[in-house]
């Protein structure tokens, strides 16, 4: 029996023009986002500039808008998930797809989340980098030493075998990149994000996020969601809320989340959003599963055609 998970990308996947073809057939998502936010998010998505779109308080609602639209288009074709999950910001899109948050509340909350994160560490003061080809124990040892010396840096995204993202102050991440390569890492790649997400530097934003979440209606999940913090399925709205607060300063356990979904019987992963970052990570975790990215009309049709053969 085919079991399907919808997965949603996080920051770093944003690009000017993302979802353009899909929006042409469902423009109300852009209009609804603009109305909620009271600024022209649709212009940023369709026209840019990329630098402004990448700012965390713009990238977050933009990516949620594109991901929610794609999930909706799939649902219109009768393709619905057994589970959802999202990477960092993508967890909020998963919660919209699972019925926990309305689209409007989702857009509003992630915009506020971005503002809180930016206030905690203004753009340019923090950084993130992907470290390839080094085991987690050695990486932890190096980042702990640098943090103890006064420049905060720590593991933030446990993405797949051989890929861990670090996060912290700009100086901490720069030092770690040098020292981790000396320790044997194959590569250290700076990420196109505007802050040190999923690090202890985000703790000042957590209480503000809790207050924002208290202001919106959250429902129990109609479709179970695998949470970033513990890589376990969750449906209770109060538990989801607490995990979202913790998620701000905790590592994203993506590899464990994918393994949890596979353990639950998921055979098909559909990545709903721009690019194919999560598709690549899932295949590195387990090559036996089917992974299908949806980011334009062509890839949407590919999934629609494929789903006709699923049982």
Task: Describe what this molecule looks like in 3D.
With 311 residues, this protein is of the alpha/beta class. It has helices spanning 20-24, 28-37, 41-47, 50-54, 56-76, 90-97, 103-120, 136-148, 170-182, 203-214, 237-247, 254-263, 277-285, 297-307; strands at 4-8, 83-86, 126-132, 153-160, 163-169, 187-190, 225-226, 233-234, 268-272, 290-294. The strands form two sheets. Strands 8-7-2-1-9-10 form a six-stranded mixed β-sheet, sandwiched between helices. The chain has a four-stranded antiparallel β-sheet with strand order 4-5-3-6. Helix 7 (103-120) packs antiparallel against helix 10 (203-214). The longest helix has 21 residues, at 56-76. It is globular. The mean pLDDT is 94.
Task: Set down the secondary structure blueprint.
Layout: E1 4-8, H1 20-24, H2 28-37, H3 41-47, H4 50-54, H5 56-76, E2 83-86, H6 90-97, H7 103-120, E3 126-132, H8 136-148, E4 153-160, E5 163-169, H9 170-182, E6 187-190, H10 203-214, E7 225-226, E8 233-234, H11 237-247, H12 254-263, E9 268-272, H13 277-285, E10 290-294, H14 297-307
Parallel strand pairs: 1-2, 1-9, 2-7, 9-10
Antiparallel strand pairs: 3-5, 3-6, 4-5, 7-8
Helix pairs in contact: 2-7, 5-6, 5-7, 7-10, 8-9, 10-11
| Helical residue percent band | 40-55%
Structural class: alpha/beta
Poorly predicted sequence stretches spanning 5 or more consecutive residues: none
Number of helices: 14
- What is the N-to-C order of secondary-structure elements (H for helix, E for strand)? EHHHHHEHHEHEEHEHEEHHEHEH
User: Which percent range describes the beta-strand content?
Assistant: 15-25%
Average residue pLDDT: 94
- Shape designation: globular
Q: Main beta sheet, described?
A: 6 strands, mixed
| Number of DSSP-assigned strands | 10
- Span between N and C termini? 6 Å
Q: Spatial order of the strands in the main sheet?
A: 8-7-2-1-9-10
Rg, Å, rounded: 18 Å
